[in-house]
Amino acid sequence: MSPTHKPSCRIAAALVSPGGLVFSATLNRTAKAFALAIVGGEYIMRWLPRGTHDWRKFVKPSELVAGLEAGGIEMLDLTGVVFNPLTGNMVLRGIRSRRELYGGWPQDSLTGRKA
Predict the structure, then answer these.
(1) Phi-psi region for residue 51, left (φ > 0), alpha (ψ -120 to 50) or beta?
(2) What average pLDDT score do residues 63-79 get?
(3) Which of 23, 37, 83, 93 gives the lowest tally of CB atoms within 10 Å of its CB?
(4) What pLDDT sits at residue 97?
(5) Residues with Cβ < 8 Å from 50, sequence gap 6 or more?
């Protein structure tokens, strides 16, 4: 994980209330994500200005989970989201895709311990 993402994970963990939930979304740092988000979205479809995405700043799911867990957030769910450009719909997938959604809550909410 990029050093710039670690403070965000710590801040999210510090700001969530006991019993609250933390949700996060990121583009996965894979060749597929590069092809679809940058090449497809910026250069072919021109949905976004060129240079919007920096592949080096994409976060792998394991990196985000590690950062959130280090801040005291227990991961509850990791779900992939796939965009269908033909229909304009996004579909949740159980497999790892180019975009990931995360849900978690403070560990003290489960155990009664203070974070």
Answers:
(1) left
(2) 83
(3) 23
(4) 46
(5) 42, 43
